[in-house]
Amino acid sequence: MTIDERIEALTQTVELLAHMHQDNEKKWDQRFGKMLDIVERLDRMIQIHDARLNGHDGRLDDLERGKS
Fold this sequence. Notes:
The protein is 96% helix and 0% strand. It is mostly helical.
C-alpha cells in the first residue's frame, strides 16, 4: 500500500466518522427535545397535583374548624 493509498484510506475513515458523528448529534437533539417535553408535562402534572392537594388541605381545615 502506497502512502497515497494510506492517506486516501485515512481521509475516507475521517469522513465516515464525521458523518456518523453528525447522525448521532441529530439523534441526540431529537431525544433531548422529547425528554424536555416529558419533563415539562411532568412538571405541569405536579403543579396540578399540588394544587389539588392544597385544595383538599384547605377543605379539611374548614371541616375541622366546623367540628370544633
